[in-house]
Structure to design on (165 residues):
């Protein structure tokens, strides 16, 4: 009988201790501005190549290969995104992936939830580069995708990783 009483008291103590522990609500704070995140000078630091035609891959990233050493042998290219919506590309390794772009205007496809950076929107020199991940003011990296086409067929993709300067 004494053991049953001890077990009952112990069980009641455990139940009340679980009931009294309430988790505090965590607040995320204000949403980070993607525009504030991208406005800066960025230097190319890494290039990943993805073979998009491998049929056995479950995801595109299954065929990812770091080709930074082969693609970047001298001075890496840089991009400066200005707050007024202009950009400037400097020459260097990796610059070939931006074709004829050198200066112009940039914007996101969606200001609240961007999925790509659009260079020179509405011109005959327009180019879209999908974002691999969001770029917030606290993020040290900007990651965008460059797709290489042969006619209408995408043959290879590159993930371009830029570091905030």
């Amino acid at each position: 009988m004494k053991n049953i009483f001890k077990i009952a008291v112990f069980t009641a103590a455990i139940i009340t201790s679980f009931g009294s522990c309430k988790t505090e609500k965590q607040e995320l704070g204000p949403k980070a501005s993607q525009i504030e995140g991208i406005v800066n000078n960025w230097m190319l630091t890494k290039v990943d190549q993805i073979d998009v035609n491998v049929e056995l891959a479950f995801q595109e990233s299954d065929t990812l290969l770091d080709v930074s050493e082969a693609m970047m042998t001298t001075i890496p290219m840089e991009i400066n995104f200005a707050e007024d919506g202009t950009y400037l590309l400097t020459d260097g390794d990796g610059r070939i992936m931006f074709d004829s772009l050198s200066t112009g205007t940039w914007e996101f496809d969606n200001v609240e939830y961007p999925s790509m950076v659009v260079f020179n929107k509405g011109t005959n020199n327009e180019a879209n580069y999908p974002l691999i991940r969001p770029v917030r003011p606290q993020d040290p990296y900007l990651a965008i995708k460059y797709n290489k086409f042969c006619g209408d067929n995408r043959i290879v993709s590159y993930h371009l990783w830029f570091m905030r300067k």
Observations:
- Strands lie at 40-50, 64-66, 78-81, 86-90, 103-108, 116-119, 127-130, 141-150, 153-164.
